[in-house]
Amino acid sequence: MKNSKSRLLRRGNKKTDNGITSSCTGTGSSCDCNSIGMGTLPLIVCILLGIHLFSEKRSMAGWMKGLQIANMQNMSTFVSSSWGAVTTTSKTQDELAKSDKNFYSPPLQKLSLLQLSRESAQNHQQHHNCTWPFVLIDDRILLQQDQDNANKEETDQFDAWSYQHNKRKIPRILHLTWIHDDPHHGPNKGRCLHHLQAVSIQRWKKLFPNYSIFYHDDYSVAKMMQQEFWPEFPELAKVLQCVKMRNAMLIDIWRQLVLYRFGGLYVDLDEIPTEQFTEDLIPQHVDFFSFSDDNTRPSQWCFATSPGHPATYHSMLTIFQRLLEMPDISRPKLVLMTGPEALKNGYSHTFPSKDRYNEGMHYGIFNATGIKYTRKKAAVCLVNNRNDPFPYNATHNWTVAKQYEADLGAVHWTKAGSHLVDQGRGSCQQHLYEFERRSSRFPGREWIQQSQGRR
Ligand SMILES: *[C@@H]1O[C@H](CO)[C@@H](O)[C@H](O)[C@H]1NC(C)=O
Ligand SMILES: *[C@@H]1O[C@H](CO)[C@@H](O)[C@H](O)[C@H]1NC(C)=O
Ligand SMILES: *[C@@H]1O[C@H](CO)[C@@H](O)[C@H](O)[C@H]1NC(C)=O
Ligand SMILES: *[C@@H]1O[C@H](CO)[C@@H](O)[C@H](O)[C@H]1NC(C)=O
Ligand SMILES: *[C@@H]1O[C@H](CO)[C@@H](O)[C@H](O)[C@H]1NC(C)=O
Ligand SMILES: *[C@@H]1O[C@H](CO)[C@@H](O)[C@H](O)[C@H]1NC(C)=O
């Protein structure tokens, strides 16, 4: 039940206009670094995005070019060293090892996390401003600058820090998101978050000082899912046609993809870490990390993997299969299709041993090494504040959930649903067929024309 608590759907919006605010009130790039006490680590450069970035006099075109080249050529070699390959064939591991080496090369990594972050910040500045009770969310990007990296591209410095020079399997990156996906959302789009949600990000910044923190807004989620080329998941663009629940369900899929592509830790935004959640919970030698949910499944609201991990790969295959088999696109079974059950399936493919759902270390295919903590541990490490009352105004104390609803126009996904019918009914396969039928390249057109002519 835990994960379902944190899924919200949004519609409509009411907002109050008490002026512009920001999560980072200092000026220049030092405010967050100082507040987390990193001033004493000279090797680290902290870059703040959001409003501050584009005031820098920097040749964007030249910078982007450098980033892309570094990313295409060097990130891919880096990623390939962390995972040999993941494959759909039923060959055994030994057979695979003997087959064509090229088959093992993962595709070139085209999208850079740094680029995505910068585009999102730029996009925000151009189009949106946050008005209270919404606040601006900055990313925190940590780079390693030492003798080895002094002249390297930022991407390499970022990798060096995230992976601690290859000592770590899961990079020190935290991914957070909240999709607005609402045309009525007014100015509070993009990197604007409710101030009660922003509390969570401030906690992460404090408790995970060595992690880069990326907030993925609507823009960067859409960019990664729709505009990025996924050679390993050719079905993606098509199957997304059957995903009508553009918030919770989309984010289920997105969290698998973002970890598959970049690696790191994903946590639902309304989970707030306690002092018990330290960086040490995700040790450097593991490539998979999770707690347990109430059904001993890996916690889909909080899990971490290295890039290209078999568990996220298999979770994606499970998602494709279950979406394609969906009998009614207006009534998706989230938990089964894209949610915790999909991750469970990906996890159990990766860690075949019988005790894989127990607490402790687990060893799986491709030498996967995972750690799984208990449900009890999750409850100690993360609190969900959605049902706690907070002052709303002088006369009302409202739960966070209620304040979200009032301020964002948000409704929990279990209460939403009926509006999905507007988007069409029928099975995913019917829906795809209809969709393709409108495309001029679809050979089925001729079949349809012929069969209509025969009538
Ligand atoms: C990045 O890739 C280029 C081209 O393959 C290579 O010349 C360069 O040495 C690489 N840099 C690093 C840091 O690996
Ligand atoms: C956002 O705020 C800036 C600075 O106050 C202003 O120049 C800009 O026009 C605003 N943008 C929008 C879309 O309101
Ligand atoms: C962050 O990294 C520094 C340097 O590697 C280390 O001394 C410190 O213990 C780390 N902090 C945490 C919370 O792990
Ligand atoms: C697993 O690890 C062993 C020992 O480190 C290594 O010999 C083997 O090649 C690895 N297998 C795969 C599939 O990576
Ligand atoms: C507080 O909010 C509620 C609900 O919007 C409203 O009815 C009430 O008048 C507000 N109180 C004040 C003092 O603004
Ligand atoms: C809201 O909660 C606070 C703290 O529990 C309490 O002091 C205050 O009286 C409450 N206000 C209202 C309007 O209920």
TrEMBL record:
GO cellular component terms listed in the entry, alphabetical order: membrane
UniProt entry keywords in alphabetical sequence: Membrane, Transferase, Transmembrane, Transmembrane helix
Matching PROSITE patterns: PROKAR_LIPOPROTEIN (PS51257)
Biological process per Gene Ontology, one example term: mannosyl-inositol phosphorylceramide biosynthetic process
Bias (Basic residues) ranges: 1-13
Region described as Disordered: spans on this chain: 1-20
Record organism: Seminavis robusta
The keyword Nucleotide-binding belongs to this UniProt entry's keyword annotation: no
PANTHER family (alphabetical): INOSITOL PHOSPHOCERAMIDE MANNOSYLTRANSFERASE 1, MANNOSYL PHOSPHORYLINOSITOL CERAMIDE SYNTHASE
Database matches in Pfam families: Gly_transf_sug
Regions crossing the membrane: 36-55
Entry annotated with the keyword Chloroplast: no
Molecular functions (GO terms): mannosyltransferase activity
Protein name: Glycosyltransferase
